[in-house]
């Protein structure tokens, strides 16, 4: 049974593509506010740190009323997933709005969240926003967005998504890219028609997964989530399934729903509703609240283990206290423990001395955000350099790896390849856009990412975008800092070929010889498909600073024989010499010298 009076929609957008303005326009045009009521501050607005880092850190909710249907808009964190938050938040939704700037197009930061949304089966609606911009290129942006959905979709229906063109700033939307006026009604219509109402069994006993926590100085901790089954009412008896396996009995205090950006007190809420519940003081994110008759909690989202740690220490230097407020170890400890309550991927342990705490998190960025947030709150303390957390696997030492997604101007290609090969990154994909920008995917040990963000920002002149996704533990990738090199030799007839790539991540130079001439270029990507190997080569002008680090290149010809897909992929990933003979080689961007 599906409810028709409610829609739960996640909103996915790159920072600055207009998420806030869009939700604001929807709120203004819905019946949440009386005509003379001020909408006030732009809603869902990112905090300054989010804006600086180009990522969204915290998820928030808004509810909009349209034609008797309540639309819950669920904000999603834009970038790094610090502990299953993205998945938990998306779990509340049945559909998603993917907001894309009509001039900029889809950005790699949104890819991760979109992929998760599609994996969870959410129905997508593409909103091409800022259609009023003079440099808007809606047709191209739609194509790029469709490509992305095509690549990530997990279900048939997701490929048949509605497209709405909008100017959130001017408050209109339409189904044609030529729309220049009107209101948001077409977007409301798309949400009502294309996002299914929540599945619910109102007769079942109450169950709700706690997705986020709110704090209130009077009420303490407030659990927010979507009701899966049954109903919840104030003063109702419930139980909490704690993470540690324990179960406790509680009585619900108040039940709140959302109206606009406010909370409103409810006498009852049903399966499908997103609510905030008081009365369970120690509840944690990911736990289940349920009717006392329930025996099984809802599936919680598995937490990825922390990959990076650093030590926080009371700053006892004589200069401490000049800028921030001097903190004692007790204050520091209390602040960190408070953080752990909501920042669930974070761990805090006591350090070697009473003034030290070891803080572990998902990655350098995760910890850097905490450090920065605390500093902005006025805490003064010292931190050590972040270190990865190693572990012993069945075959020896293992370390955490990430998938690194990069988008950067093509001119930064040489710099990136060099910087990353030195950090043990292996390229797994590369795509040159028409817009003069390249998109790369690398697998890289988390260790190799430490300090990379700054190098990246400088090296791409601030024009690059990077994003990481956690892959898991893999065998230790070796010491960072040494360069090895390899080469691939190819001829256009496909007979000549390949030379061993000593450690594919450092595969350096491509020699291509149509006829007798030898061309050199930097291999920046290999894609194997059936018996074809697509080789992406960057322009010779980027080669200058690479030659030096790829000095000893041996060249060998091997007899023609098409490689299997596995062989071709081995070329990309193996840590030893391999020989490959693609039947044909296609060269993109081949401006070689
Ligand atoms: P968010 O980071 O995704 O929440 O983006 P915002 O809603 O804060 O918008 C970022 C910037 O884009 C702001 O300066 C907005 O005024 C502007 N903006 C948002 N929507 C539109 C639009 O439809 N047209 C134009 N021209 N600008 C817009």
TrEMBL record:
Chief location category: cytoplasm
Keyword annotations: Cytoplasm, GTP-binding, Hydrolase, Nucleotide-binding, Ribosome biogenesis, RNA-binding, rRNA-binding, tRNA-binding
UniProt-annotated binding residues for GTP: 16-21, 129-132
EC number: 3.6.5.-
Catalysed reactions listed for this entry: GTP + H2O = GDP + phosphate + H(+)
Entry keyword Repressor: no
Localization of this protein: Cytoplasm
Transmembrane segments: none
EC main group: hydrolase
Occurrences of domain Tr-type G (ranges): 4-199
CDD domains hit by this protein: BipA_III, BipA_TypA_C, BipA_TypA_II, TypA_BipA
Pfam family, one: EFG_C
UniProt family annotation: Belongs to the TRAFAC class translation factor GTPase superfamily. Classic translation factor GTPase family. BipA subfamily.
NCBIfam families: small_GTP (TIGR00231), TypA_BipA (TIGR01394)
Function: A 50S ribosomal subunit assembly protein with GTPase activity, required for 50S subunit assembly at low temperatures, may also play a role in translation. Binds GTP and analogs. Binds the 70S ribosome between the 30S and 50S subunits, in a similar position as ribosome-bound EF-G; it contacts a number of ribosomal proteins, both rRNAs and the A-site tRNA.
Assembly and oligomerization: Monomer.
Name of the molecule in the record: Large ribosomal subunit assembly factor BipA
Biological classification of the source: Bacteria, Bacillati, Chloroflexota, Tepidiformia, Tepidiformales
Gene assigned in the entry: typA
